[in-house]
Write a structure and sequence with these properties.
The protein is built from three helices and 29 strands. The chain has a five-stranded mixed sheet, with no helix packed on it. Strands 2-29-28-27 form a four-stranded antiparallel sheet, with no helix packed on it. A four-stranded antiparallel sheet has the order 3-4-5-6, with no helix packed on it. The longest helix has 14 residues.
């Protein structure tokens, strides 16, 4: 904090903690050379924090958790020569595509259980999508924090011909390929997460060239969804940001591809935002927000009682009211659906940074809605969820029976422990993927 205000400390250089791309940090003046506040004011800030910080953190986790019978697990090992390093999952019909930190692409036929392997690069595949017959691969460059523009977006044909569409991306983690202005041609919006610097970028194909426009000039953009949020017939962008300037933004499309940005949910800089979903909780025609926060791999790795799932109700006019918080340490991803088909919205939450000592079983949680007002949820953990480190979560109807199933991808990593020690503990224990089939059936009516 002090370094960002130009405060100098003996034997400390903030750039020592920048893994790579320090020139971008210097260029954007993240750490100013001159003090922005007097030393006396800085000392008062330190004294205030020291005097008002709690002696201990108070946790409120539900115990004990039962195992849900709603979902049947199926572990998948796609590569027997390497530990689980899954970084992306895409499902269409009964075909699943899986990307890894090493740039490998796997295909898996859910019906025939046949696996295919397609090495594509040495870059972590952060997202897989499709555009017609083409597979789109978003590649980060390196998965560890950095600011260097080494990421890219490429297409892969069925004949395994790879073509780079976008390059020089700054640690991209999410891409939206959609026709935003209704002209019949897709635009691409990329969350260039970065580290100390980053941005939300819009790419427009103007025939002979692709024009790039910065929509948000802040690091930590993590996910973007296109919806008409003000009922004017134009697609707006809903964006979650982390890395300091945390919160949920709505970029209103005022005119074709001209957006006005507004942070509609402001979150604390230490919140650790990691994912969100849009869903109409109360069926009033307005899209509500479910946000998970649990990033715990940075400077403070203590388990935080404010990590979990928060529900925000859309009150209209871009006003959102917090209606529910559920504590889940290290919460990373959330999906929503009426999984038990009782007419209300349920949630699945995965946690990449769980605390198995304080909250055993919380790495993968099913939250069944017990009240139409979305204020009471039954928390249960998923069978075999202790087998993986769940970085990826995606929803799909794998068995084509009309209800939603889901899959999680494991990435064997710990921010607290050396990789060698962690791999020796986990080894090949974790599957690459765990499929969870929804096996809910309507209860027999009481006679």
């Amino acid at each position: 904090m002090g370094a960002r205000m130009g405060i100098k400390f003996p034997n400390y250089d903030p750039l020592d903690n920048v893994s790579s791309g320090s020139q971008y940090t210097l260029m954007h003046k993240i750490y100013p050379k001159e003090q922005l506040i007097p030393t006396a004011h800085w000392k008062r800030i330190v004294e205030y924090v020291s005097e008002n910080a709690p002696e201990a953190l108070v946790y409120d986790y539900q115990f004990p958790l039962e195992t849900t019978a709603m979902f049947k697990p199926k572990p998948l090992v796609l590569d027997t020569t390497s530990p689980a390093f899954t970084t992306s999952i895409f499902v269409k019909g009964q075909t699943m595509k899986v990307g890894t930190v090493n740039g490998n692409l796997y295909t898996y036929d859910i019906e025939t259980e046949q696996t295919g392997f397609h090495p594509t690069s040495n870059s972590a595949i952060s997202q897989i999508s499709e555009d017609g017959s083409l597979t789109l691969l978003l590649e980060m460059g390196k998965i560890h924090p950095h600011d260097e523009p080494k990421g890219s977006l490429s297409s892969l044909s069925k004949a395994a011909v790879k073509e780079q569409l976008l390059n020089n991306l700054q640690r991209p983690v999410f891409a939206l390929n959609e026709d935003l202005d209704g002209d019949g041609h897709n635009e691409i919006v990329v969350c260039e997460f970065g580290n100390q610097t980053g941005k939300l970028s819009l790419f427009v194909n103007q025939g002979e060239e692709i024009v790039k426009k910065t929509l948000l000039s802040i690091p930590g953009t993590i996910k973007v969804i296109a919806r008409d949020m003000n009922d004017d017939g134009k697609k707006d962008l809903i964006v979650l940001t982390s890395q300091g300037t945390e919160g949920l933004w709505i970029l209103t499309q005022q005119a074709p591809l001209l957006f006005d940005a507004q942070r509609v949910i402001a979150l604390a800089a230490i919140f650790g935002s990691s994912g969100f979903d849009l869903v109409d909780f109360n069926k009033d025609g307005l899209l509500d927000i479910a946000i998970v926060n649990g990033d715990n791999a940075d400077l403070s790795m203590v388990t935080k009682p404010y990590h979990g799932l928060t529900l925000f109700q859309n009150m209209g006019g871009y006003q959102f009211k917090k209606i529910k918080f559920l504590a889940i340490p290290g919460a990373t991803n959330v999906i929503s659906s009426d999984f038990d088909q009782d007419g209300d919205i349920d949630f699945i939450v995965s946690a990449f940074f769980p605390d198995e000592d304080l909250a055993p079983g919380y790495s993968l949680i099913y939250l069944s809605n017990q009240a139409k007002k979305n204020t009471a949820f039954k928390m249960e953990y998923l069978p075999l969820s202790n087998l993986g480190k769940w970085l990826i979560l995606t929803k799909a109807d794998f068995d084509q029976d009309g209800d939603d199933d889901f899959a999680v991808g494991s990435f064997v990593f710990s921010a607290k422990n050396p990789l060698e020690d962690y791999l020796s503990e986990w080894g090949f224990k974790s599957p690459d993927i765990m499929l969870y089939e929804n096996i809910y059936t309507d209860p027999m009516p009481q006679l």
